[in-house]
Amino acid sequence: MLMMFLDIICRGCLILVNELIPPEIIPIIWFAGISVTVYFFFRKFSDVIKARITHTTRKNKTIDSEDAGNQFDNLVTNAPRILDEVNREISAQREQGVTDDQMKGLLQKKQLLELGTSIPPEVYNIIGKPLVKKIIGLVGKI
To answer: Which residue from 53, 49, 51 is spatially nearest to 61, judged by alpha carbons?
Structure first.
């Protein structure tokens, strides 16, 4: 008896709800509820998200441009030592019977290092260093 009564009440509620809300509107109500929830969530946390994005972006750009300038300075100052190591590597490879086509990368590296060592350090410090820093700064901003 109790089960039949509860069944009648539940059916009555369903019939009442179905009469109040047409079934075509129920997806719109769900969409609106989810949209409002997402809107308020992002409105609340958008400032925090923007601050984190700009902070990490600025930090990465400043570190990258400074590191690039320092790495280039280290490359220019250590070019003679690196050139000597590359020359030793090339001679060791030739003793093992490696052809010039197989050592193409090493030979190109040697040419670049010879170009870097052909510039006197005084000329680089006066003209090249400020010019390189400006170029790295421009590339870092892009």
So the answer is: 53
Task: Residue 136: name the closest of 85, 88, 65, 48 by CA.
Answer: 65
Calpha distance 50→17 (Å, rounded): 43
Task: Parse the chain into domains and list their residue ranges.
Answer: 63-142
Instruction: List C-alpha distances in Å: 33 to 30, 37, 49.
Output: 5, 6, 23
Amino acid sitting at position 117: T
Mean pLDDT for the stretch of residues 72-89: 83
pTM over 0.90: no
Is the CB of residue 119 less than 8 Å from the CB of residue 102?
A: no
At 118-140, the pLDDT tens digits run: 777 777 777 777 777 777 777 76
**Tens digits of per-residue pLDDT, 38-67?**
888 888 778 777 777 777 666 555 555 566
Calculate helix-pair angle for 104-118, 79-95, nearest 10 degrees: 150
CA dihedral 97, 100, 105, 106 (to 10 degrees): 60
Distance, in Å, from the CA atom of 78 to the CA atom of 121, rounded to the nearest integer, reads: 11
